What does this fold into?
Amino acid sequence: MPHFSYSRWDGTQVGFDFDADDVFSELTDELLFHGDLNQALQRLLQRGFTDRNGERIAGLRDMLERLRERRREMLQRHDLGGPYEEMAERLREILDQERQGIDTLEQEARQSGDQRRQEITSEVATERRMALDLLPPDLAGQVQSLQEYEWTSSEARQAFDDLMEQLRSQLMQSYFNQMSSAMSDMSPESTQRMKDMFNELNRMLETRAVGGDTERMFQEFMDQFGDMFPGNPQSLDELLEQMAQQMAAMQQLLNSMSPEQRAQLQQLADSLLEDMDLRWQVERLGGNLRSLFPQMGWEQSYDFSGQDPLGFAEAAAVMNQLGDMDRLEQMMSTASNPGALAEVDIDRARELLGEDAARSLEQLAKMARQLQEAGLMDQKEGRLELTPKGLRKIGQNALSDLFSRLIKERMGKHVADQAGIGHERNFETKPYEWGDPFNLSIERTVRNAVGRTGSGTPVRLSPDDFEVERTETLTSTSTVLAVDLSLSMPMRGNFLAAKKVAMALHSLITSQFPRDYLGLVGFGELARELKPEQLPEVSWDYTYGTNMQHALMLSRRMLARHQGTKQIILITDGEPTAHVLPGGEPFFNYPPAPETVRMTLDEVVRATRERITINTFMLDATGYLRTFVEKLTQLNRGRAFYTTPETLGDYVLVDFLEQKRARRRPA
It folds into this structure.
């Protein structure tokens, strides 16, 4: 035998996975209230839920607010002036180093005692100091002028060359971040290879633009330049999308700068890339990508208002992060169903929003798949629809929710107090007596014979060995549930409770009392028969009118086709304000017209003559409604219940079960 050990929950044990039944339970109230599975899923996506482990699965509404708050924090913290301040500071240090070099050159000439050398050195020093003094005030102009400057200090020249190489690398990285490893080496050989790569990439784009086949070209491109793309794109589209995101982020950086900052950066880029012939290739690629991915937000800009200056590389990284935030926000804002979240990069969402949000997105994204795999819903013509299994599950959830609130001792199973002569098995046996139906229990009968005579064959039976199966006496009950669907029901908060009762009662009767009949009628300005499969999508009427007269008329006609005990369960929150005219048109008046009240009570009299009991459940009963229902019960001898949305289900279900027990015939 297997052995099991149990211990107290200490919070460290792994709980249960959130499965399709849990998702469906969360959906039940939304679906019943709004009557649309797609809207119910969308609302669940928006508000989130709590799983069976008590952990909060954040909804899209909360995550969007968190994402926007993080973006506000970034914009209020950073300043885009950082790249220029950083470069200008380093350039000032290099110029100071060059001036010291000029001073040292003059000092060495004086110490040499050579008059001619001193004159030449003084002339050179004066010329170079003047060149430094006449440098343009802007950073880009200084960089361009210094590229033609003849340096005195070899250390300053090397520092300037290093700064230029670093700036070129950072500039290219800001355009193509995924190629950062390739950009770190800006040697002539690497630069030429980069130009070749850009040229081949542009050629592929232009070939595809005219309908050419680029699949073979892409494979050859990756064979030659694949090491420059550590992301290892598997298709040309994937590669282009990555590069378009980077170039769009760089354009957004330019858009977010002041006109002065933007002009400086543009001049600096022209100056740095002019000698590499990369500028034309980059602009060519940018134009191609802009036309191919117009949705990338090329015109987007951000309002930075902080004090923390961003370096050149840091500014590009921040723009990439802001771009990812925008794309994630767009995806979450437009997600109309869980399947739309399948495209979210969970790892990137984890970086932007944290582990909890990433876990929530994963859970939300798989909800629809869980429900489809469980057979609870299916997709037809682009919309999600309940399956028959899903319809039954909605009713079971509604029934379970209502029963869970009942007092334990009142729940009870559907059992008879006495045995009878019906044909419903009770799974109990008794010794056969004369007059009993001969529903022989073979197993018990043979066991009695063996116990009497001992083992061995043949087994010889005697009349005293016979045992028969007990049966229950069941009476057939035919019920019509008439539910008020007038506009006042949702306005007063009664609609969901009434609809849940309808689903629960349907589930109870079909599962526990399959021989019983349940009809469904919804009434507002007019009444109409409802099919069980229509219940989840039933909504309220947007016209005024509570047409009890038509509801009772229709209920009587439905019950006329059935036998047994008959009853109408009437759920309403208002007095009768409409009736049907001889031509079939509805008549509405508020307060209730005497003719409406008279015609409604006439239907009550007809139902009473046909031995139909009317039990009325009143929600938010006004004085007039109470007076009307008292007249109804006097005529029909049914019962009236004054209830609330919270207790409606308890009253209806308990009353139904108790009446079923009361109608059983003793044996």
